[in-house]
Design brief:
By secondary structure, this protein is an alpha/beta fold. It has three domains: 5-55, no CATH class; 73-247, P-loop containing nucleotide triphosphate hydrolases (Rossmann fold); 253-323, Helicase, Ruva Protein, domain 3, CATH 1.10.8. The chain is built from 15 helices and six strands.
């Protein structure tokens, strides 16, 4: 059969997992490849076979014994599975950041069309910036918008718990990513990404080298998201392997107001936001949300349906004081 080894492996994986859309998309990619080689008759026959097969009813496949929503065995030791319920409307940030996330979603929604034309949708993302600025939230939004489970891998925990076995454990995660479509979030990614040349520890170098190989070989079935607070310590070889890099910063005063408004909802009606915005300057999304929650709970416990401006300013001040502790 014509086509690259990667195409053949992708065909087998999609057939085994019952993903008919991916199966036909890969087959169409092979047809397009043959057409570019000048094998027009073969390409035409493949296209006809694909179109005919798509018209045939497909027998319902049995539900997998181990659904991805509840990973078991070795995988269950490495990931935490959730189904986030936050959408794109819950994500606040600069226009450039929002456009990058939207672009990833658009490519994923057009995944089949892109694959048929020989392209891979963006599926390897690096999110970097200070703690509490929305990196994990972005991964949750992507999973929700694409109706996929979010599987979170805490790299610091994996490396400490499985010292000497980390590379083999990463292999388990990447094997799952090839066959079980989901968003795989590698949190605390900088635990892995230290400069290989700055370390004499052979184990650390093997882990990074293994991750590079796994990431390079990864197909486009799943989305891998790596989140780090320290881009500057990442190995440059790791940095180059990602399709998209999204930079997160502390919110501006206006963005901070939007974060708090979103969390408070009707409880925030009538607040003097021009005063509050200045008080929240330099604080992270996470701290702004926590301050809004503190003020909101105070209003509810008083039996009121509105937050007082003074309460939210006080909550912001307390939260800011906690930042320096």
């Amino acid at each position: 059969m014509a086509g690259s080894g990667d195409h053949i492996k992708a065909l087998v994986r999609s057939h085994a997992s019952g993903d008919d859309d991916s199966f036909y998309a890969v087959a169409a990619q092979i047809a397009a490849q043959e057409a570019r080689k000048g094998h027009n008759r073969l390409a035409r026959d493949l296209k006809r076979a694909i179109d005919a097969a798509r018209q045939q009813p497909v027998a319902k496949r049995p539900t997998p014994v181990t659904p991805i929503a509840q990973p078991r065995g070795d995988l269950s030791e490495l990931v935490t599975a959730t189904f986030p319920e936050v959408g794109l409307g819950d994500l606040v940030g600069p226009m450039q950041l929002l456009e990058q996330i939207k672009s990833v979603l658009t490519e994923q929604r057009q995944r089949q069309n892109l694959i048929e034309q020989g392209f891979s949708p963006a599926h390897k993302l690096l999110l970097e910036g200070p703690p509490g600025t929305g990196k994990t939230l972005s991964a949750r939004v992507i999973a929700h918008e694409l109706s996929l489970p979010l599987l979170t891998i805490r790299m610091d925990s994996v490396m400490s718990k499985f010292l000497g076995e980390t590379a083999s454990k990463l292999r388990i995660v990447f094997d799952a990513a090839e066959t079980q479509r989901a968003v795989y979030l590698f949190d605390e990614f900088d635990a892995l990404g230290g400069d290989r040349g700055a370390s004499d520890v052979g184990e650390a170098r093997r882990i990074v080298s293994s991750f590079l190989v796994f990431l390079e070989q990864l197909g486009s079935e799943s989305i891998v998201v790596a989140a780090t607070n320290h881009r500057t310590i990442l190995d440059r070889a790791l940095f180059r392997r990602f399709d998209t890099v999204v930079r997160y910063d502390l919110p501006s005063a206006g963005e901070g107001v939007e974060v708090m408004k979103m969390r408070l909802g009707p409880l925030g009606d009538g607040l003097e936001w021009h005063k509050i915005g200045a008080e929240g300057g330099g604080m992270s999304h996470a701290d702004l949300v926590k301050a809004a929650e503190a003020a909101g709970k105070k209003a509810v416990m008083r039996g009121e349906d509105r937050v007082h401006t003074a309460d939210l300013i006080e909550a912001l001040s307390i939260r800011r004081g906690g930042q320096s502790g």
